[in-house]
C-alpha cells in the first residue's frame, strides 16, 4: 500500500480509488483525512467534515458490497499465528517505557517537522526517529491494573515511527514551498516539482518514488483560471 505524504493537489494520505476508496490491500478501505483529501494543499479544519462524509459514504458502500458478495470469509491460520507470535514477542520486561518515547517522538516532529521546515531540521528529525527506534526493542510491556495499555502504547509507538519517517522523508524530497508545505530554505514553488511523492514500505525500509501530476480536465482549468486569486502577505502564512 502506498502513501502520498506531500502530494501536489492534496495534503497527502493513503492512495485510494476515488470512487470506492479501496486501497491496494484487498478488503481494506480508507476514509477521511487519512486519504488524499478533496480540498487541495490546505489545512482548514472545517474541510474535514466533508472529507469524512463523502469518502466515508463511498468507502462504506464499497466495503458492504465487498462483504455481501462473499459467501464465506477465509482467514489464514498462518497469518493469525504470525500476528499472535508478534504480539507475544513484544510482551517482556524492559528498561524503556513507551509513553516517554511517544512524547519524545511527538516533540521531535513538532520542533523539526512543523509548519515551517528546513532540510537541516528534517534531517535532525530523522536522527531522532532512528534513536527512538533503537529503544523500541527494550520497551517494557506487561499487563497491569489498566490491562494491556502498555502493549497498546508500544504498538502506537511502532506505527508512529513509520508514519513520522514517511512524513519527514517526503518533506525532504519536496524542496519547495507549495500549499501548506512551507520550506523556509526553498520559499518558492518549483515548477519542476509538479509531482506527487509516494512512499512504500519495502523489506522494512521506506522507499519514495515520484509521479508527474496529470493534466487537469479542461473544465477544471477554466475554474482555476477564473477563480479569485488570494494575495499572500509576507507577514502571514496562507493555508
Share of helix among residues? 40-55%
Instruction: List the strand order in the largest sheet.
Output: 1-2
| Structural class by SSE content | mainly alpha
* Poorly predicted sequence stretches spanning 5 or more consecutive residues: 5-10
**Silhouette:** globular
Report the portion of residues in β strands. 5-15%
Q: Give the biggest beta sheet.
A: 2 strands, antiparallel
Individual helix count: 6
Mean pLDDT score, rounded?
87
N-to-C order of helices and strands: EEHHHEHHEEEH
> How many domain modules?
2
Distance linking N and C termini: 28 Å
- Alpha carbon gyration radius: 21 Å
Count the beta strands: 6
If you had to describe this structure to a student in words, what would you say it looks like?
There is one protein chain. With 239 residues, the protein is mainly alpha-helical. The chain folds into two domains: 1-71 and 194-239, no CATH class; 93-185, Methane Monooxygenase Hydroxylase, Chain G, domain 1 (Up-down Bundle). The protein is built from six helices and six strands, in the order ββαααβααβββα. The strands form three sheets. Strands 1-2 form a two-stranded antiparallel sheet. A two-stranded parallel sheet has the order 3-4. A two-stranded antiparallel sheet has the order 5-6. A hairpin with a 2-residue loop joins strand 5 and strand 6. The protein starts with a strand and ends in a 13-residue tail after the last helix. The relative contact order is 0.13. Mean pLDDT is 87; it is low at 5-10.
